[in-house]
Design a protein that fits this description.
By secondary structure, this protein is mainly α. The protein is built from 35 helices and 10 strands. Helices cover 55% and strands 6% of the residues.
Length: 872
């Protein structure tokens, strides 16, 4: 039983690794099928991602996400010194070496005989390559950290209120990273949420509504007589130039690009789908994951043993199964949103041959999925079945007919509901059960987001996992459009007004929310320029050829060459199309719907760059989230999954959107694990620092606050995957230094780290025997193991003189402090090239791209002026 507590190294499956290239090529074929479908439906992509939309969704998200971001950083306050300063876990030079080694390869630590600072300009260039930029890698005294924290707090508050938003949002992002990149021992899924969605927030024009910036803008325009107000012309939506208003009247809420919000939706779907699919262990399959997660002593707010005894074998299992499949299939809500959007837009129907081509691609994608699953079955299903489970032969016999039947049912259902929907009479009214109805109720937001709110509400009430849950719930705002946000806030305001709280007068009067900017105003973008299908198809061919050349030949062609060829080729085509059709304007009223046409977010160049970014970023994230399975190449650098990340690696790492969502995967822990720290002082007396919840002082019930200390303890002591053994020596050295700091400079003799644990009883045991007492079970079933002993004479275990002088402690004699000598200078002299040539080709390419971009931008402006002149 105790062996189950010991982690062993995962042994790669040689047969699966050998098959992985075949799986990779099949998945590439499936990707091509999907891309071809998108090319045929490129107008739907353009209207969905590249349109301008109401700014109030992103404005509300800015406020809510800014608040939880601020709370998340401040929630680390009990660990600020430990995590982010030189008085904490890592001294300054160690933090650089541990978390940004390659970036600081040309930087000296100042340890004899090595100078402090960059060795040469090559070292500066190496640092500029990134991806971890933080002043705390240079200056990390407590005072320096408080300066960085103070700057972050100011920037984040400015972001929340929308003051100097364009500056504040990027300052918040950079300072957020400046803090958390200094030490990653506390990281969990929470950091991934904030890192990703903060970037998407920065890419949006989130200050165009509900902001001090917009209020100042409206006040200025009102004073100039150029603002469209609720009671005046345009009713707040803006007015076109006329004899009465030569410059026109500007709207209160100007339209903003939609693509950052669309990426947020895709990111949340990827988050849930990824974490759902990697939860493939026996505990999830049996339905006991919720039980074990709730009974982890590090997480629960109140002792759940009474509830577990009653609901552990019934309701908890239902919760587990629903949550598991809700996460894995969450992307269906995106499918529902896209289908409903396309149907509302009433796009012109595709020609017959294109419709059949699209159907063939969907069929091909489904068959590719079947092939991939079938050929990898032997690595997921045991040949000899376990009790109550089907064996490999049974799966291989029944999977193809079931899969093909499922494809036929899905295709038939969509055709039936789209072309011959049934009707029913209910409550005296006739209802048509078409695709809109199906997508609203089965693939709609009310179902999938509703389940999410219920799931996260349970987490907030019953478990304490910090600011992950509020941040994830905040992202649901992205699924609302601007008018829905306006009506929601209006309803909340009316209720607050009834309670006697001060609210704007238009709310107390019951006025409707202000409309967003009028989509028919002449200054908005409606040009007819669009990349042709042949160019996009050619890009796919070049991309596939590039993959083949890199994977199967020894020509030495880098990924960058393929990417540059695709980008340059499409840019040339886009510029040419803009020259021919950029001045041609689409109608303000859509001839198919009779409604105002949604304007573009940018001119042709802006749409090209935004579209290219969306495709590049989403493809990179999708590849990054592929499971680390041997049949996909595993974690080997030569495996196709890792090699496929190469074209996206620099961007994903520099933008800090590298991500993994393995919460409680593949199974939740089935034992409670704690870290006990014993210190033996210079007199030989041993002290228990009582650093974990085995001590009553660290286990308040109910637990309303939150600390990452428990997470850190589990990681250091080996209760989670990762570098537990590696962290142990550094934590022990910090304990030595911290003890000396708090005891007049006198260091202890040694530090011992013990792993305490006990197995959580099964749900069946608790249902049969009744609730257990965690303290009693720890005392009677405790497993205690010494995992590390650190002598305080070890490297970096002494309190350095810089910190001693800071606190007025006696200084160490020369030679008493044992630094970590890393020999950066000698390694740098061997690494750097003999003659550092100026990269003229790269610089010339940058100049050409910038010059071409400026020329294209000028063309767009000329086309716009020409089009507006023709209209007037």
């Amino acid at each position: 039983m105790l062996l189950g507590l010991l982690a062993d190294e995962r042994i790669p499956n040689a047969e699966a690794l050998a098959l992985s290239p075949t799986v990779g090529w099949w998945m590439l074929l499936g990707f091509v099928f999907f891309v071809v479908v998108c090319i045929f439906h490129r107008e739907a992509f353009r209207r969905l991602f590249l349109r301008a939309e109401d700014p109030r969704t992103m404005a509300l998200f800015r406020i809510v996400f800014g608040l939880v971001t601020l709370a998340n950083i401040n929630g680390l306050s009990d660990l600020f010194v430990y995590l982010f300063t030189d008085e904490g876990l890592f001294l300054t030079d160690v933090a650089r070496e541990v978390f940004a080694k390659e970036q600081f390869a040309g930087f000296g630590d100042g340890i004899d005989p090595e100078p402090y600072g960059f060795f040469d300009w090559g070292g500066v260039v190496e640092w500029l390559k990134g991806p971890k930029y933080s002043p705390l890698f240079f200056w990390d005294s407590p005072a320096a950290f408080w300066v960085v924290l103070g700057a972050f707090e100011v920037a984040c508050v400015c972001l929340i209120v929308g003051f100097q938003t364009n500056l504040a949002k990027w300052a918040t992002l950079l300072l957020f990273h400046a803090i958390i990149l200094r030490n990653q021992v506390f990281w969990e899924g929470t950091e991934n949420v904030y890192r990703c969605f903060l970037l998407y927030l920065c890419l949006s024009r989130c200050g165009a509504a509900y902001s001090v910036d917009n209020w100042l803008r409206c006040r200025r325009l009102r004073a100039q007589g150029r603002l469209s107000t609720r009671e005046g012309p345009g009713n707040g939506a803006g007015v076109a130039p006329s004899a009465e208003h030569p410059q026109g009247l500007e709207a209160v809420y100007r339209l903003i690009p939609a693509w950052p919000r669309m990426i947020m939706i895709l990111q949340l779907a990827a988050l849930y789908c990824s974490t759902g699919t990697v939860k493939n262990g026996d505990i999830w399959a049996k339905g006991d994951a919720f039980y074990y997660a709730l009974n982890l002593d590090h997480f629960y707010r109140f002792e759940p043993q009474q509830l577990s005894a009653v609901f552990g074998t019934n309701l908890f299992r239902i919760n587990t199964i629903i949550t598991h499949y809700w996460e894995a299939f969450f992307p269906l809500v995106v499918l529902g949103l896209v289908v409903r959007f396309v149907r509302r837009e009433q796009l012109p129907p595709l020609p017959d041959w294109q419709r059949w081509a699209v159907r063939a691609c969907w069929l091909g994608l489904g068959l590719v999925g079947l092939v991939v699953v079938y050929i990898t079955l032997p690595f997921h299903i045991p040949a000899v079945p376990r009790q109550g489970m089907a064996g490999l032969a049974t799966w291989q016999r029944w999977l193809p007919p079931i899969w093909l039947t499922g494809m036929a049912v899905v295709g038939g259902l969509f055709w039936w509901l789209g072309n011959r929907p049934p009707t029913v009479t209910f409550g005296g009214r006739r209802h048509t059960l078409d695709l809109d109805w199906f997508c609203t109720w089965f693939l709609g937001r009310r179902l999938w987001l509703g389940l999410g709110l219920i799931f996260h509400a349970h987490l907030i009430v019953m478990m304490n996992i910090g600011w992950f849950t509020p941040a994830t719930m905040a992202t649901y705002i992205a699924f609302l459009n601007g008018s829905e946000v306006a009506f929601l806030l209006r309803a909340i305001g009316e209720r607050l007004g009834r309670l006697g709280l001060p609210v704007p007068k238009d709310i107390t009067r019951g006025d409707a929310p202000l409309p967003a900017e009028d989509a028919t105003l002449p200054h908005l973008h409606r040009d007819a320029a669009a990349l042709p299908a042949w160019a996009l198809g050619g890009a796919v061919v070049v991309a596939v050829a590039g993959v083949y050349v890199v994977a199967e030949t020894d020509l030495g062609v880098p990924w960058a060459a393929t990417g540059a060829a695709i980008f340059a080729g499409l840019a040339v085509v886009g510029f040419t199309v803009a020259q021919r059709r950029g001045a041609e304007q689409l109608s303000r009223i859509d001839p198919y719907t009779g409604r105002p046409r949604r304007p573009w977010a940018y001119g042709s160049m802006g749409r090209f760059l935004a579209g290219a970014f969306v495709v590049y970023h989403c493809t990179g994230v999708a590849i990054w989230l592929l499971p680390e399975k041997d049949s996909l190449g595993g974690e080997s650098k030569t495996g196709w999954r890792v090699r496929a990340q190469d074209p996206f690696k620099w961007w994903v790492r520099t933008s800090q959107t590298a991500q993994g969502w393995k919460m409680f995967a593949p199974n939740p822990p089935r034992s409670n694990i704690f870290m006990q720290v014993m210190v033996t002082d210079h007199d030989g007396t041993a002290y228990d620092l009582n650093t974990d919840v085995y001590h009553p002082d660290n286990k308040p019930i109910p637990w309303l606050g939150y600390t990452r200390q428990r997470k850190i303890n589990r990681r250091i002591i080996g209760g989670e995957g990762g570098k537990g053994e590696w962290y142990q020596k550094w934590h022990a050295r910090w304990v030595c230094r911290d003890w000396a700091l708090k005891h007049g400079g006198q260091a202890p003799k040694k530090v011992e780290l013990f792993k305490l644990s006990y197995l959580i009883p099964t749900p069946e045991e608790v249902a049969k025997n009744g609730p257990y007492k965690p303290e009693e079970r720890l005392a009677s079933n405790r497993f205690r193991k010494l995992v590390y002993t650190g002598e305080c004479t070890d490297i970096n275990a002494q309190l350095p003189n810089t910190i001693r002088a800071r606190h007025g402690l006696p200084l160490l004699a020369p030679g008493e402090f044992r630094p970590w000598v890393k020999n950066h200078l000698s390694a740098w002299n061997k690494k750097k090239p003999k003659s550092q040539q100026v990269p003229w080709l790269v610089l010339a390419s940058i100049v050409v791209v910038v010059a071409a971009g400026l020329r294209w931008r000028a063309l767009d402006r000329d086309n716009k002026r020409r089009a507006m002149a023709e209209r007037t």
